[in-house]
Design goal:
Helices cover about 40% and strands about 10% of the residues. The chain has about 280 residues and is α/β, with parallel strands linked by helices. Strands 1-7-6-5-4-2-3 form a seven-stranded mixed beta sheet, with helices on both faces. β4 (about 130-135), α6 (about 145-155) and β5 form a beta-alpha-beta unit. Bound molecules: pyridoxal-5'-phosphate. Pyridoxal-5'-phosphate (PLP) binds near residues 137, 166 and 167.
Length: about 280
């Protein structure tokens, strides 16, 4: 229906209904995932573009704190940033970093244990030049990094913490599974897919950024024909300009399933995954 309806979810005046449903869906996502209510929620094509958006905001935020004007001076003589990430980082993070102009020599790759969790004793020192990328849900094992110890350490040093939670962040929506991602709420940004566990049609990723001014500074656009009083319109917060009203599907899925329905969905998937891991013989 969203495709046939063909709303342009650029800003409130281009589609008031898409704008309203997007804002409502965004609030619901924050509630479901139990993330800071002040964060901005943006609907993008997938987790890959959520990484691009969040990491662009991260860079902007760290530079701004140093008084470096990236929009004016560009990257050529910018202070060096270091990205700390795990050797099991999802390839989409590496793509996002490449798109943003981070080179391999700026990556500090940390070894993992057999479950793909970052080995904490191998983590380098953090600073206010660091972006730390953690993972909620490893594609091979489903495991998550130790957010409750790593995030406070990085934040104390002035680093930005981004979390790839493409599917794993949905564990937050289940009281039985949320301990798996304990402490993840202290990060600065999160990327998660609605087209994974929430099962909306492709394409639908969600970018969540605590420091929304930093995101806006990177993404904002201005011209007489798209003037608006609302600072937080999609065109000023996300990479796309014209875009499909993909949040309508998130709104519809959450309306239909409700908090309990989503909880059941997640717990059932976890149960099946556990049964599969224990051997298909147990699967009746
Ligand atoms: C952990 C993880 N991160 C990122 C991605 C990329 O997500 P998308 O294809 O929505 O960009 C995936 C997709 O499988 C994933 O499993």
């Amino acid at each position: 229906m969203t495709s046939a309806w063909d709303q342009i979810a650029l800003m409130e005046s281009s589609s008031p209904v898409a704008d309203q449903l997007e804002k409502t869906a965004g609030l619901w996502v924050l509630e479901l995932l139990n993330l800071p209510p002040e964060a901005f929620v943006g609907f993008v094509t997938g987790t890959t573009m959520a990484h691009v958006s969040a990491l662009a905001a991260a860079r902007q935020y760290l530079y701004q704190k140093k008084g470096y004007d990236l929009a004016e001076h560009g990257l050529q003589n910018a202070p060096q940033l270091k990205v700390v990430l795990s050797e099991e980082v999802h390839i989409s993070v590496l793509k996002a970093l490449r798109l943003l102009g981070f080179g391999r020599s700026q990556l500090n790759i940390v070894p993992c244990d057999s479950q793909g969790q970052i080995i904490e004793s191998a983590v380098p020192e953090f600073s206010d030049n660091t972006i730390l990328v953690l993972q909620a849900g490893n594609v091979n094992s489903g495991s998550s990094d130790n957010f409750h110890t790593l995030i406070p350490q990085a934040k104390r040093a002035g680093s930005w913490v981004h979390v790839d939670g493409a599917f794993g962040l949905w564990a937050r929506a289940s009281s039985a599974q949320s301990a798996l991602v304990k402490g993840v709420e202290e990060a600065d940004s999160w990327a998660v897919d609605a087209h994974k566990w929430l099962n909306t049609p492709y394409d639908c990723g969600i970018c969540i950024v605590r420091h929304k001014h930093a995101l806006r500074e990177v993404m904002t656009t201005s011209a007489a024909y798209v003037e608006t009083q609302d600072m937080w319109q999609a065109k000023d917060m996300l990479p796309e300009f014209a875009r499909r009203a993909r949040a309508v599907e998130v709104w519809a899925a959450i309306s239909e399933l409700g908090v309990q329905g989503i909880q059941v969905l997640i717990e059932r998937c976890c149960l099946y995954a556990k049964m599969l891991a224990e051997g298909l013989n147990n699967f009746s």
